[in-house]
Amino acid sequence: MFGVFKRNSELPWITEAKSVFGLHETRDNAKLKQWLRSDGKTLGDPNALPWCGDFCESAIKNALPDEPFLGPLGKNPYWARNWLHFGETTQPVYGCVLVFSRGSGGHVGFAVGEDSDEYYVLGGNQSNSVNISRISKSRLLGARWPKTYKNPMRELPQMSANNIPKSTNEF
Length: 171
Hints:
Blueprint: H1 12-18, H2 29-37, H3 52-63, H4 71-75, E1 88-89, E2 97-102, E3 105-114, E4 118-126, E5 129-136, E6 140-145, E7 166-167
Parallel strand pairs: 5-7
Antiparallel strand pairs: 1-6, 2-3, 2-6, 3-4, 4-5
Helix pairs in contact: 1-3
């Protein structure tokens, strides 16, 4: 599964996100809470709260400490749809932040691949863990790139579902 990550120079927030790949909010609660606090703040217990935004915030802030979080995102980085205010607009490219609809709420994670119908998203709170899940392209609200890191415009690798779960309602 990590073949998608084999690159000459990995994006720093993807490296940070990969460092907790596989952690589960119940089984690995203490370790996950410690990592989510590592950027200086956290939403709280991932076993009790939706933590996809906290996951993205920790990965970005640990990797790019000078990245500004302005407006609604600065006030509440834990609300997934606030990530539509992150950085700059981009087309979906490797490593960008993808924001998805989910009822009146949303979901946020990092793009690591795609197929014709779905994005492959490295994220937290996907089946209660840090993993790669497939999310329908029709749910995409926006793609964002950090202001403090030059966008190399890496195309998303074409992937095949194999054993990667499809997510329709992140929890």
